[in-house]
Each structure stands twice: as C-alpha cells, then as structure tokens.
C-alpha cells in the first residue's frame, strides 16, 4: 500500500483521467465535402459509453440553416449531437431527416423538436415508428440507464410521400430517396447532387455485417440499393461503418443481400430445410465483416423465411 502512495501526482491524475474517460465516445463531425460532415459511430453494439449511437450521423450546413441526418438514440445523446454541431457552425439546426425507424435514427427527435427543428421522414416509417418506438425505448433503458432521461417517442412533424422528394435550403439541393425500405420499412437515403455525397442510412453497412429484423425485407432492400447505384455518388456515408465508396458498399452490402437471396431462394425451391441451407451457404466473400460468424445464421434464416412467403 505504501508503494502505491509513491506514485507521482501527475501519473495518478493521468490514471484517474483514463479510468473515467478512455471508454467514453466523443461525438464530433468530420468534413467529407464542402459544408458536409459526418459522425462515424461505433461498429460494435449499443453501450452506455457510446450513447447507443452505434450508427452514423450526417450534417449539411447551408447559409439558411443546418440539416441533421438522423437524431440519435436518446434526448441526452441528441444534446451531445447538437453540441457537436455547434463546434462546426453557428447555424441553427433547421431540419432533421430521419432515415429510418431504427432507434438511433429517431429517438433523439424530442430534443430537436423542442429546439424548433422541423423533423422529416418518409411516410412508410410512420407505422414502424409507432409500432416499435416503445419497444426500442424499453430495450435501450437498461443500456443507457440515466442517459435515457428526457427521451420520449417523438414522431416526425413532416411525412414525405414520394419516392424522391427534392428539398432546397440555402441554395443546397437535398433529395430524399425512398424505395420501400429494407432494414426497416421507412429506410431512405439523403442525396446531395451538388457535392455528390449520399447518406444511405441503413441501406448500406460496411466494415460490419448488416442486420435483419422481423420488419426487414431483403427484396425491397435490393430495390433501395439499385436506386443508390443509379445515383453514382462520389462519396458514400453508410448507415454503419466508415465513409466509403459505392464499390465497397456493393461488396459489403449489395453482394451479401444478392448472395443470401439467390442461395436461400434455391433452397426453398428445392425443399432444403433451413439448417442445411445455412450450412451450404458460402460466406467466404464476407468473412472480413465484423460479427459475421455471430449474426450470419440469423440473416440466413430470416432470408429463407422471407423467400418462403414470396
């Protein structure tokens, strides 16, 4: 015990600092194009330290206000996002665009609505948000604990109805692209044609394997991916993983969806049982993705069951 007391004060302070801060996640926006920024979230699971924000957030700055792409998983997390925006621009957040119905896309809406932002999402997200909002809150409560304070289910204030909705703010064109979802029914992409940047929301995962839920549909997901390919973006901000290219998005998301549907479709037609179908699936091209061994069985089974229903 006496030896511990001889640790120099500066070292002791440093150790104390890291014991409290080494695992904290700082939300900060990095420039990816003129007046366009991204926060790249954790590719692991939701934790107290990462604010359950294991997803990417976008920011577009215009002369007439800022546009935030997704609002985070909680009121407190949204406040941290807003503080990070203030470090980039003095412009107020005028619009928030929710790219889908997953918790970290919209459960921070309450903070931004209280601060005067208009919140938008595609109308196909409405039923999903209403159905799963309380469930998502319940799931995040034991993870975020006190950080859930102030969080409520707050729906968008403006529902977009078209497949392509063109918006304009401060001379910046923003197109919200929707093709009946995929990961969730309301999944949309935010396209900035002037800069060639697209924020894909959960249409694209890179670096880690994609996720499928009971509300997910691989068929419409591929339709969304086809719309992405038609855009031919210069810079692609996925829903999860590092800022990337269309080619990498194809490798990590598009090819996996196509492979799952092709393989499981043949298995269903042949009457192969679900277990044997999964064992026969060649996952070699996707072994570089995080969590592939853990989550691939679920992806295979959900795809098989979806194709049985088609």
The ordered H/E elements are HHEEEEHEHHEHEEEEEHEHHH
Poorly predicted runs:
1-23
Structural class: alpha/beta
Tell me the Rg in angstroms: 21 Å
Summarize the biggest pleated sheet.
Answer: 7 strands, mixed
**Corresponding CATH architecture:** 4-Layer Sandwich
Considering DSSP H and I runs of 4 or more, what fraction of the residues is helical? Answer: 25-40%
The CATH topology name reads Metallo-beta-lactamase, Chain A
Average of pLDDT: 93
Number of strands: 12
Strand-residue proportion: 15-25%
Task: Briefly say what this structure is.
39% of the residues lie in helices and 18% in strands.
Q: How would you describe this protein?
A:
This protein has 310 residues and is an alpha/beta fold. The protein has one domain (25-309): Ribonuclease Z/Hydroxyacylglutathione hydrolase-like (Metallo-beta-lactamase, Chain A, 4-Layer Sandwich), CATH 3.60.15. It is 39% helix and 18% strand. It has helices spanning 2-5, 9-21, 75-86, 103-106, 109-114, 126-144, 218-231, 246-270, 274-279, 292-309; strands spanning 30-33, 36-39, 57-62, 65-69, 93-97, 118-122, 158-160, 164-169, 172-178, 188-192, 197-199, 235-237. The strands form 2 sheets. A 7-stranded mixed beta sheet has the order 1-2-3-4-5-6-7. Strands 8-9-10-11-12 form a 5-stranded mixed beta sheet, covered by helices on one side. It starts with a helix and ends with a helix. Residues 1-23 have low confidence and may be disordered.
């Amino acid at each position: 015990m006496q030896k511990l007391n001889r640790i120099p004060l500066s070292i002791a302070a440093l150790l104390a600092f890291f014991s409290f801060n080494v695992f904290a996640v700082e939300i900060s926006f990095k420039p990816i194009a003129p007046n366009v920024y991204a926060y790249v979230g954790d590719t692991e699971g939701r934790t107290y330290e990462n604010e359950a924000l294991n997803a990417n957030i976008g920011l577009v700055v215009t002369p007439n206000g800022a546009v935030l792409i997704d609002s985070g998983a909680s009121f407190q997390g949204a406040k941290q996002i807003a503080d990070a925006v203030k470090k980039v621009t003095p412009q107020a957040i005028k619009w928030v665009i929710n790219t889908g119905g997953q918790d970290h896309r919209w459960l921070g809406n309450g903070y931004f609505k209280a601060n005067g932002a208009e919140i938008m999402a595609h109308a196909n997200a409405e039923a999903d948000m209403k159905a799963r909002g309380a469930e998502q809150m319940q799931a995040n409560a034991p993870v975020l604990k006190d950080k859930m304070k102030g969080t409520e289910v707050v729906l968008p204030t403006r529902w977009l109805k078209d497949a392509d909705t063109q918006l304009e703010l401060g001379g910046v064109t923003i197109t919200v692209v929707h093709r009946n979802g995929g990961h969730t029914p309301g999944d949309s992409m935010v396209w900035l044609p002037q800069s060639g940047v697209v924020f894909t929301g959960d249409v694209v995962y890179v670096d880690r394997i994609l996720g499928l839920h009971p509300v997910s549909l691989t068929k419409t997901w591929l339709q969304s991916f086809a719309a992405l390919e038609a855009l031919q973006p210069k810079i692609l901000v996925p829903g999860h993983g590092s800022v990337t290219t269309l080619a990498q998005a194809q490798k990590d998301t598009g090819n996996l969806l196509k492979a799952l549907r092709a393989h499981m479709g043949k298995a269903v037609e042949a009457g192969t049982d679900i277990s044997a179908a999964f064992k026969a699936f060649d996952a070699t091209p996707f072994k570089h993705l995080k969590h592939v061994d853990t989550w691939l069985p679920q992806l295979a089974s959900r795809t098989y069951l979806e194709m049985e229903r088609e």
